[in-house]
Structures are given as structure tokens and as C-alpha cells.
Amino acid sequence: MNIQAVVFDMDGIIFDSEAKVVECWVETAEKYGIKDIETLCHKCLGTNSAETKRIALEFYGEDFPYDEYKAEMSALYHERYDGGRLPMKPHIKELLEFLRENGIRVALASSTRTQVVHDQLRDAGIISYFDKLVCGDMVSRSKPAHDIFLRACEELGVEPSSALAIEDSYNGIRSAHAAGMHPVMVPDLAPPTAEMEQLADVILPSLKEVIEYLGKE
């Protein structure tokens, strides 16, 4: 491989945010007696807000007051973790430094909306490592469609075949594979499956091993 760029997912890769979102959904669900919320959360991993709502209404029924519950969950999440309090995943800064030192361009391809992405990267002090940010409200189709990764590669000026995509979710790996990139899965909430073993170039236990993997290429 001749890797010229690395494109990161954000939630579950850069930040330990997926677990925190589930935590806030569980608290909200317990308050209102909503069943199987963790099952729904896992179905929605890697998707943007519109796709998440579609999946929720399919899961609970069209009369489910999703917007009301989502607003309450979101308020709880931002109250708890905004302002730099969202924990980062181990070795993320080490990996970003490695990429900078080796002249490898870096982009983000996150299903989260632009303002939240910008705020979280800024508050964590790592936004300067990213050459391009492509967010969920900047493309029409959510992961697992390949739109967001293709746009990230286009904005970086690299061919997808020359770019690594670091993802934790099934939908993210499907998206990166469909884009013709080199998907690397670093699992967070979702364990690897036979499908992920087939679609990903490699499955690694942490971002530390990603540094070692890139160092060998």
C-alpha cells in the first residue's frame, strides 16, 4: 500500500463518545419506561441524525416521540461532556502526531453534525491535526453509503485506494469498503463479525496497533 492519507471516524475512534451517548439514552429510557434502548443504539452506530431517527421510528413505531426523547438525551449528554470533558480514546494524540511527522494527510468523516464535530475537536485541542472535516450534515446519504468517505478523499486530493479509513462501527466499515479505501476496524461497542473480517483490511485492538501497522507499510 502507498498510504497518502488517513480518514478518521470520530465517535468511538477519537472520543469515547458512543458509550457516553448510550449511557445518556439509557438514563432517558429508564425515566420514560422505553424498552430495549441499547439494542436501538447499536443499530444506529455510525449513522447520521436523519438515519438514526428513521431506524428509531422503524424500531418503535411511527408514533414514537423520538424528537422529544432525543432532545432530552442530547441535553443531558452536552451538559455532562461539553467543554473538553468528553474523554478521548487511548493513543489518539500519539497516532495524530505520527501521521503529522510522516507527512500523511488527515481528514475526519463523521456522521455527527458539523458544529458538534468542530466544538469537540476544538475543546480537545486536536482540531489542528485535521486537514479536512466532512460531517454528517454535509452529505445527503448516511453511512453505510460511501458518500462521506468519497468526499473526504476528494477534499484531500487523494484516490480512495491511497487512503486508510479508521472505523469502529459496522456501517462505517461498510462505507469505507464501498468507497474503495483501506478500512481498518478498531472495535468499540460493536464486536467484530465475519462480515467485518471480510470487509476490513485488518482489525486491530487499539489505535496503538494502528501506528505499528502503518509503520510496517
Beta-strand residue percentage: 5-15%
Summarize the amount of helix as a percent range: 40-55%
Mean pLDDT value: 97
End-to-end C-alpha gap: 7 Å
* Unreliable sequence segments: none
Number of helices: 10
Cα gyration radius (Å): 17 Å
The first-level CATH class of the largest domain is given as Alpha Beta
Total domain units: 2
What is the helix/strand order?
A: EHHHHHEHEHEHEHEH
Strand order of the largest sheet: 3-2-1-4-5-6
The major pleated sheet works out as: 6 strands, parallel
- The tally of beta strands, per DSSP, is 6
CATH topology (level 3) name of the largest domain: Rossmann fold
Structural class: alpha/beta
Determine the CATH superfamily of the largest domain: HAD superfamily/HAD-like
Tell me about this structure.
- This protein has 217 residues and is of the alpha/beta class.
- The chain has two domains: 5-16 and 88-216, Rossmann fold (3-Layer(aba) Sandwich), CATH 3.40.50; 17-81.
- It is 49% helix and 12% strand.
- It has ten helices and six strands, in the order E-H-H-H-H-H-E-H-E-H-E-H-E-H-E-H.
- It has helices at 17-32, 37-43, 49-60, 66-81, 92-101, 114-123, 147-156, 170-178, 194-199, 207-216; strands at 5-8, 105-110, 132-135, 163-167, 182-185, 202-203.
- Helix 6 links the parallel strand 2 and strand 3 (132-135).
- Helix 1 (17-32) crosses helix 4 and helix 5 runs parallel beside helix 10 (207-216).
- The longest helix is centred in the first third of the chain and has 16 residues, at 17-32.
- It is globular, with a radius of gyration of 17 Å.
